[in-house]
Each structure stands twice: as structure tokens, then as C-alpha cells.
Design a protein that fits this description.
This protein has 163 residues and is α+β, with helices and mostly antiparallel strands. 29% of the residues lie in helices and 30% in strands. It folds into 2 domains: 3-68, no CATH class; 72-138, Ribosomal Protein L30, Chain: A. The strands form 2 sheets. The protein has a 4-stranded antiparallel beta sheet with strand order 1-2-3-4. The chain has a 3-stranded antiparallel beta sheet with strand order 6-5-7. Helix 2 (83-94) packs across helix 3 and helix 2 (83-94) crosses helix 4 (117-129). Bound molecules: zinc ion.
């Protein structure tokens, strides 16, 4: 099972104590799900929610996963892939207009699509179901969305991340 989770902290909207949230995305019976769960240790405030579909995953959940795990990149494994099955798979998986699907297909054929690992694995399944060979790997070298440190904090000409 393909799943990814992250733990982040925030403030309780009721009593302002520190809250711990567990967020995640996973694929269940071929469908992408997301969830968030948290509870306050001081007051009774707590919740658990889950929903399906890449369109409705809240951006704060996506950003928490991208910050914790980095982004994944989905790319075509065969440069001779025809456009039609790619468009069909993208439109079915993401509920896109033809114009939006064409833009996504061009991006896929070019630099590749970037998102969370579960989102890219979910799209990869939709594409493979239509006979499109794709690969999912880490999106190394791309600026990570949701980065907590501003880029200009990195000194020029020095690799301060030790990697
Ligand atoms: Zn509270």
C-alpha cells in the first residue's frame, strides 16, 4: 500500500494549547484519500476527517507532506508515447478540461509532473492502466514547495545543507 504521513504542530483553536496533527495521503482500492487527525491534550477539542480525491486534498495537508518527505516526479518512461491515452488517463484521474489536460500532458512529456508521492503514484496507476509506461522518482533539484527557510538564507557558493 502506498501511503505517506506527517506530523505537524499548531495551536488549538479553543484554548491555544499546542496541538499535534497527523496528516496523510494514501491509495485505497485505487482511489486517492487524504486525512487529518488531531486532539488537544488540554481541552476536549479534537477531530478526525478523511476524504478522497486529489482535487480536494487541502493545501496545508499537501504542504506538510511535501515538507516532510520532499516532492515526487512522474515522467514518461518512453518518449514515443502517444498523446491520446495520456490525455484520457489525465482527464479521468483529475477531472480536467481538455485544455487543462493538454497542459498537464505537455508538462508530463517535458519536465514531468511534480506532487506528493501518493498523488504521483495514483496518476501513474491511471496511466499504466491505459498502457502508458511511466516512472515515479524523487523530484531532486526542484525548489521544494512549503519550504520553511527562505532561499536567500542559503549562502551563495557554499553547500550549507551538507549534501
Ligand atoms: Zn484545546
Amino acid at each position: 500500500m502506498i501511503t505517506q504521513g506527517a506530523r505537524i504542530t499548531g495551536l488549538c483553536p479553543e484554548c491555544r494549547a499546542t496541538l499535534v496533527y497527523e496528516v496523510g495521503q494514501w491509495i485505497e482500492r485505487g482511489v486517492l484519500w487524504w486525512g487529518s487527525e488531531g486532539g488537544c491534550g488540554r481541552c476536549a477539542h479534537g477531530w478526525c476527517e478523511r476524504n478522497q480525491g486529489p482535487v480536494v486534498t487541502p493545501e496545508w495537508v499537501r504542504q506538510a507532506l511535501l515538507t516532510a518527505h520532499g516532492a515526487a516526479r512522474l515522467s514518461l518512461a518512453d518518449a514515443r508515447t502517444g498523446l491520446v491515452p495520456v490525455l484520457r488517463a489525465l482527464r479521468a484521474a483529475e477531472d480536467l478540461t481538455i485544455a487543462a489536460a493538454r497542459a498537464r500532458a505537455a508538462e508530463l512529456a517535458g519536465t514531468g509532473l511534480v506532487g506528493t508521492l501518493v498523488e504521483m503514484e495514483s496518476l501513474a496507476r491511471a496511466l499504466r492502466d491505459r498502457g502508458v509506461a511511466v516512472a515515479v522518482g524523487p523530484a531532486a533539484g526542484t525548489p521544494r514547495r512549503g519550504r520553511l527557510r527562505p532561499p536567500d538564507a542559503v549562502q551563495r557558493g557554499r553547500n550549507v545543507e551538507g549534501g
